Each structure stands twice: as structure tokens, then as C-alpha cells.
User: Fold NAD-dependent succinate-semialdehyde dehydrogenase from Jejubacter calystegiae.
Amino acid sequence: MLKLNQPDLLRQQCLVNGEWCDAMSGAREPVMNPATGETLASVPQFSEAETLQAIESANQAWQAWKQLTAKARGALLNAWAEKMMAAQEDLARLITAEQGKPLAEARGEVAYAASFISWFAAEALRVDGSVLQSPQANQRLVVVKQPVGVCAAITPWNFPAAMITRKAAPALAAGCVMIVKPAEQTPLTALALGQLAVEAGIPAGVLQVITGDAAQVGKTLCDSPVVRKLSFTGSTEVGRLLMAQCAPTIKKLSLELGGNAPVIVFDDADLDAAVAGIMASKFRNSGQTCVCANRIYVQDGIHDALVEKLAAAVADLQVGDGSRAETSQGPLIDTQAVEKVQIHIRDALDKGATLVAGGQPHALGGTFFQPTLVTGVTQEMRFAREETFGPVAPVFRFRDETEVVSMANDTEFGLAAYLFTANAARQWRVGEALEYGMVGVNTGLISNEVAPFGGVKQSGLGREGSRYGIEEYLELKYLCIDVS
Ligand code: ADP
Assistant:
């Protein structure tokens, strides 16, 4: 069983208006450990009625929260971030238990998640308006920024802590209140974050965490005219549905959707740096992040040398239960994830690709999968079109820059892209030509609280993190004052 230093971080009820509650029906859903198949806990199955109560509480809480000074809100956010870091080990254990990632990665996620809170605690202080030059002598024109209001977040399982704080922190900093509906696979981390927010003194109703039937809770949040904004991270398919459901109430939307990240390695790249970057980008969280390398384009001249180094690095990966210190690759989240990986590999091999390493479910069983390397991949294969979301590195071969930019852009997605080259002019040229929201140059890790995270095309709307992220939770108000 899960052992925590602070046992009350294992919450099995929803946080509504500062109270821990069950569903009216008493219905509950189990939470599983993907590494062992063991049931860790269970959480309430909220439906429409409880969701409407949370919305009502949020609206009441907002009236007082928006009146606080930015400094006061920032201080409460800082207290929350400090509580999180004090509970880093417990939170990491919860993340590993319900999500599967190795403990070291989970600890890193807690620090990354807390960094958004402290960043936005500081950004709250810089929400300034402006005074415009009036075209009329008798008028003064002022622009102020005000919080959007009641916000909702629907978050995925791959970063059970960070996807919540990246949305809740800017919302609360801006003076909004937030209802969080975490993924059904990973509600325990979300509920623990709720407990820590309570301990930090964040007032009742300002941050609520509700679990339940995703479609029903989601529809209720979308339909409500009281909810003014929805921030969603997840699949493009569900993002599209939520966008349509938000149309009748013209809700503000932030969407972080699927990716199909290309990594381009040119002949002049530092091969060791490229391999390190590919490994970091591809195999983090066993390939289950939306910025994971999905297509690896390698130029002719270095193709074989790079594949050889990559194969050696893949062979070094240690698959196992994330709670074991030596593990670098945890299990996949569920059997559907394993099936998708297998379908993509089979499709490529059927169309002529070559399996260099892995390719099979791991001997550990369950949802463990062998880290896999495939070469001879082409644009006709599913790897080129769909996000694999697993520990599979598909290598494509290319001849020149024009060809590879066109292949890299040939997708409806546009989240992250990476390129490796020593040529400074090419870094700029290709960096600008790639139709992506984020481009890593000679690095495979690009995400932090200071930079704007987000995609173009069907990868989403809006940006999270950075000084731009708080704008998503602010409205501009223009005041025209007649001074005559
Ligand atoms: P994934 O394939 O990564 O699980 P999803 O888009 O299915 O991505 O899930 C991301 C989040 O969206 C989760 O919190 C999930 O519960 C929620 N979700 C899934 N389907 C719906 C839906 N129909 N309405 C609202 N939320 C949904």
C-alpha cells in the first residue's frame, strides 16, 4: 500500500467549498497503480448536481477573492508552493503510484508544478493597466485588467500535478477562481494539491477539485453561463468536443492538445548532444508527453552513426516499477496505450520499416513495453500522422533542408519541434520555418515556467506559463472619462 509521511494527503473525497464531499449517489471509482494493477484508493463519481454546487460555491468565493490585493493573493500562492515543496516526496509517491513515472521524474514534476505557482505569485504584482493618449481634450482613456471570473480546468493524467498548477496558478493570481476536474486515472495528486491549498490558507471555494464522470461533469461546466473560461489539456478529439460545447456560452478557451513533434538532426550536428536531446524528449514519461519526439528526421550523412548511438542509449534504459530507484522507464498508463503503440509499430513494419530494438510488450507484463527503435520510417506510415504516445523512436531519413522542413510541417499539429545543427544561420532559418508554437534548438527539453507553452494549428489555443500566461485569465476594460 501507499505510504505517505503526511497520511492526510491521501484524499478520497472531492474538495467543494472548503469541505471534503462524496457524490450524492455515493458512487465511487477506483484508482489503479499502472505498474502493479493494485487498487490504490477510490474517488467520488460526481455528476451534474454536485458540479452545479461547485460552480455556485466558486461564484460566491470569487466575489471576495477578486477584492484581495494582488500582494495578498500572491502571498497565499507562495504559501501553497511552499507546502508543495515541503510535501515533495509524498506528492512524488502519489504521482508515481497512480501514473507510473519513475520517482526521480515525479520529484522533478512536483518542483516544476510548484514553479508555476511561485512564478504567477510574482506575476500577480505586475498586472498593470495603461493610460492612453486621448484624441479628445476633454477625455481620459484608461485601460484596466480585471479577472475573467469563474474558471474550470480539465486536465490529463501524464502530469498529474503540473497540468493543474499551470492553469490554477495564473487563474488565482489574476483574481479568478478555479474548479479542477483531473483525469480519472490520476485524481489523487489533484486532491492532495487541494489539501495543500487548504493548509496554505487559500479560502474555501477559490480552488475546488472534483472527480467524476468526465463527459457529464465536462458538459455541466461547459453549459454553465457562470463559468467564463475553460482551460483544457488533453486530446485534440476531446478538445474539439469541448470547444463546440463552449460555443453556446461563448466561453473563453485555452486548449493544449495533441502534438506530433519532429526532431531534425542535420549532418553538422553534435551527435552526442542530439542523442541526449532525443532520449530526453522521446523517452521522458515513457514517451507519454505531448512534446515528446514523435518523428526523428536524420540527414543522410550521419544517419547510420546516429542510429548506432541511439540504439546504444535505448539499450541502457531500465524498464520497471517507477518506485524502484534504478527505473528510467515506467509502465504505460493503460492497455489502450499499449495497443496504440503496437498498432503503430506493426503498421510501420508492414510498410517496410526495420525494427532495431524492442518492439514487444516487456517481460514484466502488464502495461510495460520495451523501449523501441525503428528505422526506415516514411511519411506514409502512421508514425508520420498520429501521436504514438509511447516509448517508440521512429527514424526517418532525409536529404536536404527544404525537404525536411516540408515533411516536418506536413501535419495538422503544431506544438513542439526540435532541431540539431551547429549552423547558426540554419538554426534561425529552420526555427522560423517550422510551424510550431515551440522550437528547441540543440536541446530536447524546453519547458519551464518562464516560457510560453502552447501550440499552433490543431495543437491548441492560448499559452500557459510565462508573463503571457496570466493574460489568458484577464479581461481588458476600457474606461472613457469625460473630465469637462
Ligand atoms: P487522453 O487520451 O490523454 O486520456 P483525453 O482528452 O481523453 O486524453 O483526457 C483528458 C481529460 O479530458 C481527462 O481529464 C478526461 O477525463 C477528460 N475528458 C475525456 N472525455 C471528456 C468529455 N467528453 N468531456 C469532458 N472531459 C473529458
Residues 154-156, 181, 183-184, 214-215, 218, 234-235, 238, 241-242 surround adenosine-5'-diphosphate (CB under 6 Å).
